[in-house]
Amino acid sequence: EADIYQTPRYLVIGTGKKITLECSQTMGHDKMYWYQQDPGMELHLIHYSYGVNSTEKGDLSSESTVSRIRTEHFPLTLESARPSHTSQYLCASTGTVGTQYFGPGTRLTVL
Amino acid sequence: GQSLEQPSEVTAVEGAIVQMNCTYQTSGFYGLSWYQQHDGGAPTFLSYNALDGLEETGRFSSFLSRSDSYGYLLLQELQMKDSASYFCAVREDQNFVFGPGTRLSVLP
């Protein structure tokens, strides 16, 4: 059973607000990822981390930042939310080679 | 460039067998994973192939041919609960590139 958590599960905010999406895992995994997924569409990599103090940008990283101060925690921050950010955000960590465990996701709506 | 192709939709009846294909073109390749995602839910891991051949886990089997840049997921004894989207994903060293997904509808 994968133990990876995301909060909030749902969020509705206004344009221009700064928000942080939380992700935590209790499995001790070094590698963690953030994906963006629109309904019925593929996953797009936003950011990833190979361990503490390691962060890298993915294909869709503009306007967001991440930090990895602790192994278990990998928050994603949108500095100024826009309606184009409306989507589902999925956090994942990698355990056994080839296996990614996903959190339940955060559904973000920007008005 | 990187690209993965999957059929957009597949429909089958309960009890049948269905095969969902995935072809890929990526800069690196370490293995092919399969994930299931129900509407409104998060992807869950099904299988991973690093070497050519067939891997079987219960009703699910996954196949890989690296020379053909091709893989498939086979579901047997289909059940209504198998209705979901199925994504293939290529592992490129530490990262994963996901395909567009195949939406499977299982009819009674």
Task: Give a topology summary.
The complex is a heterodimer of chains A (111) and B (108).
Chain A: E1 4-7, E2 10-13, E3 19-25, E4 31-37, E5 43-51, E6 54-57, E7 64-66, E8 76-78, E9 87-94, E10 100-102, E11 106-110
Parallel strand pairs in A: 2-11
Antiparallel strand pairs in A: 1-3, 3-8, 4-5, 4-9, 5-6, 7-8, 9-10, 9-11
Chain B: E1 3-5, E2 9-13, E3 18-25, E4 31-37, E5 44-49, E6 53-57, E7 60-65, E8 70-75, E9 84-92, E10 95-98, E11 102-107
Parallel strand pairs in B: 2-11
Antiparallel strand pairs in B: 1-3, 3-8, 4-5, 4-9, 6-7, 7-8, 9-10, 9-11
Structure report:
The complex is a heterodimer of chains A (111) and B (108). By secondary structure, chain A is mainly β. Chain A contains no helices and eleven strands. In chain A, the strands form two sheets. In chain A, strands 2, 4, 5, 6, 9, 10 and 11 form a seven-stranded mixed β-sheet that branches. Chain A is globular, with a radius of gyration of 13 Å. The mean pLDDT of chain A is 92. Chain B is an all-beta fold. Chain B contains no helices and eleven strands. In chain B, strand 7 and strand 8 form a beta hairpin. The radius of gyration of chain B is 13 Å and the shape is globular. At the A-B interface, strand 4, strand 5 and strand 10 of A face strand 4, strand 5, strand 9 and strand 10 of B.
